[in-house]
Amino acid sequence: MTSPQPSRVSIDRLTVIGLVLLLLPMLTMLHEIGGHAAACLAVGGDLRAIGAFYVDCSTTTPLARRIVVGAGVSADMVIAVLAWRAWRGARTPLAQLLLWLVWTAKGFVAIGYFAFSGLVGIGDLSPRALLLPESSMLGWRVSAALIGIIGYRWVMLRSAAAARHMLGGGSDGVVTQQWLAWGFYAAMGGSALVVGALNPLGLGVMLQSAAASTLGGLAGFIGIARMADKDGAGADFVVPRHWPLIGAGFAMFAAYAAVLGPTLRF
Length: 266
Fold this sequence. Notes:
- The chain is mostly helical.
- The chain has one domain (9-259).
- It has 8 helices and 5 strands, in the order βαββααααααβαβ.
- It has helices spanning 13-42, 62-89, 93-120, 137-167, 170-196, 203-216, 220-226, 243-259; strands spanning 8-11, 46-50, 55-58, 236-239, 264-265.
- A hairpin with a 4-residue loop joins strand 2 and strand 3 (55-58).
- Helix 4 (137-167) packs parallel to helix 7 (220-226) and helix 5 (170-196) packs antiparallel against helix 7.
- The longest helix has 31 residues, at 137-167.
- It is globular, with a radius of gyration of 20 Å.
- The chain starts with 7 loop residues before the first strand and ends with a strand.
- 44% of the residues are buried.
């Protein structure tokens, strides 16, 4: 009879940096290009520019405008659901980690737009962005804020439970969940600010788009770090250093910053 092997939880930190540098451009472009820009072309709008965190599109009708501004959040929701479904069937730790980060980040950003636009009154889902009449602005903001706050909490709880499922309990699982959540949040926010600073429209775009969607939208990762729980069974979850992924991340981030940071105009 042999004794059970101790659990192992280890995630290479440089590989996580590579994931950040890969995911920030990819997830942002899916929102801006796959959402806003694609919708702009679909409704016959005039696509004038694509920046790292914004799209300049001129539309001719209120309905077309609403479709374009809502397309980014819609794209985020679709990506979050697809990534969550894929995560449930993932078998390797690297695939599980990647998909967990994707569905958590996109879930936070998608539902966070409701809270942000409702509470602050700006952003993609704000009454003015949607061209709502003055009489319905307050009602929309209150409804959006409630949806956002409740939904954001739900995503955070689901993601924290998923993290505990992957990493297990015990001191290793707790420490890993804490540094992973904090580290991903800080690295995504810092990287977004670096790229956002390259935009030609000034500080306003960086604060309303880059900072709001990352430092604000992804703030739920702080809650995930605080929800780490050492109770429960241990787990075997090892993500070693992955040089091809790290290299791809640096290359993707450099290209994203160089092309879309200063804005691509048409």
